[in-house]
Amino acid sequence: MEIRIIDNLDGKVETINDSDAEQVAQLIRGNTKAYNQGEYTEEQLERLCAFATPENLKEEIDRGFLVMLRTDEGELIGCAIIMKRGTRRFIRTIQVSQEHARKGYGAMLYQHCEERYRKAGIAEIEVEVTKFKSTESFYRKQGFVKTGNPTQNDLYFAMYKFL
Ligand SMILES: CC(C)(COP(=O)(O)OP(=O)(O)OC[C@H]1O[C@@H](n2cnc3c(N)ncnc32)[C@H](O)[C@@H]1OP(=O)(O)O)[C@@H](O)C(=O)NCCC(=O)NCCS
Question: CATH 3.30.70.660: does it fit domain 2-162?
Answer without folding.
Answer: no
